[in-house]
Amino acid sequence: MAVVTTEELDRMLTRLKLTAIRDQLDSLLDEAVRGEMTLRDALAFLCQREIARKDQRRIDMSFGLAKFPFVRDLGGFDFTAQPSLDRGQIRDLATGRFIANGDALLLLGPPGVGKSHLAVALGREAIVAGYTVLFTGAMELVANLAKAQADGRLEERLTHYTKPKLLIVDELGYLPLDPDAAHLFFQLVSRRYGRGAMLVTSNRAVGEWGSVFGDAVVATAILDRLLHHSHVITIRGDSYRLREKRRSGLLQKPAAAHETTTVST
């Protein structure tokens, strides 16, 4: 067999889109030699490095497309501040099984208890597991749907929000929705029902969603779909921001301790 030059090998690896092997070829071959690998083992080693590079690129691109407002992970979540929160349940959710099943996950509780942190962290875990994710604020979501409806592009926008395997809707309930917005949100939930998972954070208990949507009938229809196959985690605790102020002496500690409850259906 004719001797293959480095330039020819680079061209072949580029054509095959094996860029990780191409960019690290010398060091990878040196490592294979040091490890006294067989040809089969060396080939598997090179393929593993190529796959790792492609996986990382996919993850990095998916993080960008998800539009997370900040970077958070489960390792940075202060479970000690929410001692009743079931770590095992959160880690089970992080496996993405609820996404594969098309379930809904509701994270409920007052402001500042870590709902958005958990939402972003679980979204990032979902991407690593291979799922597509999109993060949006509730008010941004309904504003975009209303604009699309006014422009005659509602179907296109609903499709946009239906495609990801996991749609995260943050801060539902901080401001009430007008009836038109509530009906648009219902259309989206109906589209995703049975097709894709949703993660919703809210400062309102589900019993208060009638006031959030301004229509008890619409709220019931939305909850009927979200709660059919769902995991509901209600965090009853103090705001992390208020806790820091208490530590600094700016606020007094509350008289009664808070607790966290979890419910799955």
From TrEMBL:
One Pfam family assigned to this protein is IstB_IS21
What SUPFAM superfamilies would the database entry show? P-loop containing nucleoside triphosphate hydrolases
Molecular function GO terms recorded: ATP binding
Q: Which UniProt keywords apply?
A: ATP-binding, Nucleotide-binding
Limits of the AAA+ ATPase domain: 101-234
Q: Which Gene3D superfamilies match?
A: P-loop containing nucleotide triphosphate hydrolases
A single Gene Ontology biological process assigned to it is: DNA replication
Q: Return the similarity comment.
A: Belongs to the IS21/IS1162 putative ATP-binding protein family.
Q: What is this protein called?
A: IS21-like element helper ATPase IstB
Look up and give the organism this protein is from: Limimaricola litoreus
Q: Which gene encodes it?
A: istB
